[in-house]
Amino acid sequence: MAMRKEHDFLGELDIPETVYYGVQTVRALDNFNITGIPISKEPLFIQAWGYVKKAAALANRDCGVLDAKICEAICFACDKLIAGEYAEQFVSDMIQGGAGTSCNMNANEVIANIGLEYLGYKKGDYDNLHPNNHVNCSQSTNDAYPTAFRLALYRKIDLYIGVLDKLQKAFDKKALEFNHVIKMGRTQLQDAVPMTLGAEFHGWATTVREDMQRLKEAQQLICEINMGATAIGTRINAPHGYPELCTKYLADISGIPCTLAEDLIEATSDTGAYVQISGTLKRSAIKISKICNDLRLLSSGPRTGLNEINLPKLQPGSSIMPGKVNPVMPEAVNQTCYYVIGADVTISMAAEAGQLQLNVMEPIIGFSLFTSLSYLSNVLHSLVDKCILGITANEEVCKNMVMNSIGIVTALNPMLGYEACSAIAKEALETGKSVHEIVVVEQKLITQEKWDEVFNIENLIYPKFINK
Question: What is the pTM of this model?
Answer without folding.
Answer: 0.93
